[in-house]
């Protein structure tokens, strides 16, 4: 595109501006196949589980004594003390349920041979509360709570569940534990860990579909070009 000033406007710039300035009407094609249009206000039941791999500051006996995560008073009239890590959520307290007296005890060693492998077990225990089997050749843990939720409410959303991570897969598994324990928080069954997705493009394709052929996607990935 060329203006009377002699300056060129690139196709990419034009498309970006057009996308920002033109409001498209709702189209039937925007609704996932096989799903009826619903009022967004109705919403769907969703569960989000977030894991901080190395724990949180104060997530120990001292933190418990300082009430960093669990209010002193049980019930609806609880209060967040000044030093509480949950204090920023004060304005949302009417929507919060704080579950205290929980732990990750199933990640602790039960036998002498398991001493030292706490990190290798903790990731798998987080949502399953099952003590992982210590054999490098196979796995046995338990069905995770997010997959139990997906089995009950997964039909309400486009995908029953979506497992994401910001860290690369850990290949340095130790203490005779299978790498699946370290790399998987979600488990469809005691023997079926669900790998997490780290690549943003793969997440996008999972949610919205690739929209082109495998060859086109491979070419675009190599050239690192956007859809525009």
Structure notes:
It is built from 7 helices and 2 strands; from the N terminus they run αααααββαα. It is mostly helical and 228 residues long. Among the domains are: 127-196, no CATH class; 198-228, no CATH class. The radius of gyration is 24 Å and the shape is globular. This is DUF1552 domain-containing protein. It holds the Pfam family HXXSHH.
E-strand count: 2
| Main beta-sheet annotation | 2 strands, antiparallel
Percent helix:
25-40%
Give the amount of beta strand, in percent: under 5%
Regarding quaternary structure, how should these chains be classified?
Answer: single chain
Q: Radius of gyration from the CA trace?
A: 24 Å
**Average of per-residue pLDDT values:** 80
The low-confidence runs, each spanning 5 or more residues with pLDDT under 50, are 1-5
Structural class: mainly alpha
Instruction: Give the neighbour order of strands across the main sheet.
Output: 1-2
Please state the overall shape, judged from the principal axes of the Cα atoms. Answer: globular
The ordered H/E elements are: HHHHHEEHH
- What is the first-to-last residue Cα distance? 16 Å
Count of helical regions: 7
Features:
228 residues, mainly alpha, two-stranded antiparallel sheet, globular, disordered N terminus
Question: Mind sketching the topology for me?
Answer:
Elements: H1 11-21, H2 61-65, H3 118-128, H4 145-153, H5 179-183, E1 186-189, E2 192-194, H6 200-208, H7 214-223
Antiparallel strand pairs: 1-2
């Amino acid at each position: 595109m060329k203006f009377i000033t002699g300056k060129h406007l690139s196709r990419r710039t034009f498309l970006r501006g057009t996308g920002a300035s033109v409001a498209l009407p709702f189209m039937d094609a925007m609704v996932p196949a096989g799903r009826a249009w619903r009022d967004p206000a109705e919403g769907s039941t969703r569960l989000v589980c977030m894991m901080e791999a190395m724990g949180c500051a104060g997530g120990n006996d001292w933190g418990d004594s300082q009430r960093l995560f669990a209010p002193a008073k049980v019930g609806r009239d609880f209060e967040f003390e000044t030093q509480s890590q949950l204090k920023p959520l004060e304005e949302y307290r009417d929507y919060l349920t704080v579950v205290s007296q929980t732990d990750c005890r199933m990640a602790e060693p039960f036998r002498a041979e398991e001493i030292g492998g706490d990190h290798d077990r903790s990731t798998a225990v987080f949502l399953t509360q099952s003590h992982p089997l210590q054999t490098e050749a196979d796995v046995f843990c338990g069905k995770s709570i997010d997959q139990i939720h997906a089995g009950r409410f997964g039909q309400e959303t486009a995908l029953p569940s979506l497992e994401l991570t910001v860290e690369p897969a850990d290949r340095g598994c130790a203490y005779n534990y299978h790498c699946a324990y370290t790399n998987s928080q979600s488990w469809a069954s005691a023997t079926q860990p669900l790998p997490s997705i780290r690549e943003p493009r793969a997440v996008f394709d999972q949610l919205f579909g690739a929209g082109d052929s495998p060859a086109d996607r491979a070419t675009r990935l190599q050239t690192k070009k956007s859809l525009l």
